[in-house]
User: What shape does this take?
Amino acid sequence: MMSAKRIAPRLIQRLPGVRGSLEENLDLARFTWFKVGGPAEVLFRPTDADDLGKFLAAKPADVAVTVIGAASNLLVRDGGVAGVVIRVGRGFADIAVDGDEITAGAGAADINVARRARDAGLAGLEFMVGIPGTVGGALTMNAGAYGREMADVVVSAEAIGADGEQHRLTAAELGFSYRHSTAAGNWIFTAARLRGVPGDVADIERRMAEIQAERETTQPIKTPTGGSTFRNPHGVKAWQLIEQAGCCGLQRGGAVVSGKHSNFLVNVGGANASDLEELGEEIRRRVEAETGVVLEWEIHRIGTTAEGAPEEVPS
Assistant: This one.
């Protein structure tokens, strides 16, 4: 007699119980600023750091984990993301002021941190009004804008390891460099302690307004985009190389090189993740052929293509 074929349990059936939510095959395009991307095999939205830590400690060791926040600088490929995608969101959005320091959850919007600092009369954090996304993402990539970056203001960060243990990392242990943190690959950030300096509220407000006005003038913030596409090579701006290579106005499907800022790719309607990634790779080819410089992606790319091609290591 032929034995019945054994059906493997769905991933969600293998996962531990949580206080937050676990959802199968959830479309990630709804979260990304590009408005593209395939589904998460399972999306986990933890209630708080304790919920997240217990989940990581109890989940099967073979289950892959990917962490997202506001997904403002993220390209999710069309085939989606296998394993568990953890979205660090509302349960990590608290912001508190104590003297000249601000403690902000990893899910707190950068702009809200800047506003809270302003209201408390703390200067030095105005640049965060110009960074789309959340504190967790800003820590991961040492985000910066308008002459300052996270490394200038971070005192320490709270993080959870793959074993579910919670840790506090000093600024030095975060290993900040240009758009990078050496700790980012090993930890899931849950909060940060930031330091400002006493300042005049009106002056702080004026500087924030200047940053917002300049950003609106020079960046395509009202069109679906992922922010700066490529890191600036040493001593030169990526947009200058892109324009030198004749890439202004290049288009693949609904993906276009922004006419307002050439280091921004935008979804003008109907683009998929492959359109955006292929357009970015074409820019890299042209820039290297014209200038000899190899641009490195600043946008983080995750998942598989619609054809199921394996995930590549982002460069």
Q: What stands out?
A: The CA atoms of residues 67 and 86 lie 5 Å apart. The first strand starts at residue 21 and ends at 27. The chain has a mean pLDDT of 94. Helices lie at 49-58, 110-119, 135-140, 201-218, 238-244, 273-291.
